[in-house]
Amino acid sequence: QLQLQESGPGLVKPSETLSLSCIVSGGSISSSGYYWAWIRQPPGKGLEYIGSFYYSGSTYYRPSLKSRVTISVDTSKNQISLKLTSVTAADTAIYYCASVTTVSNYFDPWGQGTLVTVSS
Amino acid sequence: EIVLTQSPGTLSLSPGERATLSCRASQRVSSSYLVWYQQKPGQAPRLLIYDASTRATGIPDRFSGSGSGTDFTLTISRLEPEDFAVYYCQQYSRSQWTFGQGTKVEIK
Fold first, then answer.
1. Dihedral through CA B10, CA B85, CA B97, CA A118, nearest 10?
2. How far apart are CA A36 and CA A30, in angstroms?
3. Burial (0-12, 13-18, 19+ Cβ within 10 Å), A82
């Protein structure tokens, strides 16, 4: 059974880079047909897709975040990473990682999420 | 980008009542790519319905999805206390996923 667990700093200063990791257990991130995605949710607000890494190496990003986002994988650690540069208070959110398959195209499972606050 | 608009923003109902939630897309969405999630406070979203009308594993049959094209509906036939939560629709198109803004189902 696939499980995902996010980790990273809970506090980031404005203009700095937010860096998060997501450890995948119960399966390989190199498995064919999988996207590994990041989604965020500002406090009290809705869900926002950030981007995804396809097992073949392709990446897809939300257009409004594309200039600041990098999603990558470390197959040796079975881990997905998110980097978001030049953060502002608007980037304060719970950040989730999730998996999608090309067959399903829905997010399942999700990690439990990690809150990142952007503040000086 | 396909925009999903959910209505109403908040639905105030009593246990045992029927809930009808709407999700309208700015462009046609394939029914195979329309999904509903439930989210409770402090939890990650939980998959409810995929392919517009197929219940996910373990989801009670009081939850049903319907619709096609640009108009989709999630119906909860008789609300149980554990069903009061926020519900999101989501679509997939051309390697982009978008979510609706959510409908909160609250106890009246």
1. 90
2. 10
3. buried
A50-107 pLDDT, tens digit each: 999 998 889 999 999 999 999 999 999 999 999 999 999 999 999 999 999 888 889 9
Phi, psi of B83 (to 5 degrees): -90, -10
d(CA A38, CA B70): 26
Q: Among B7, B60, B73, which Cα is nearest to B34's?
A: B73
Chain A: residue whose CA lies nearest to B6? A46
Dihedral, CA atoms, A12, A29, A109, A97, nearest 10 degrees?
10
Identify the residue whose tokens are 């937010």: A18
B44 to A48: CB separation less than 8 angstroms, yes or no: no
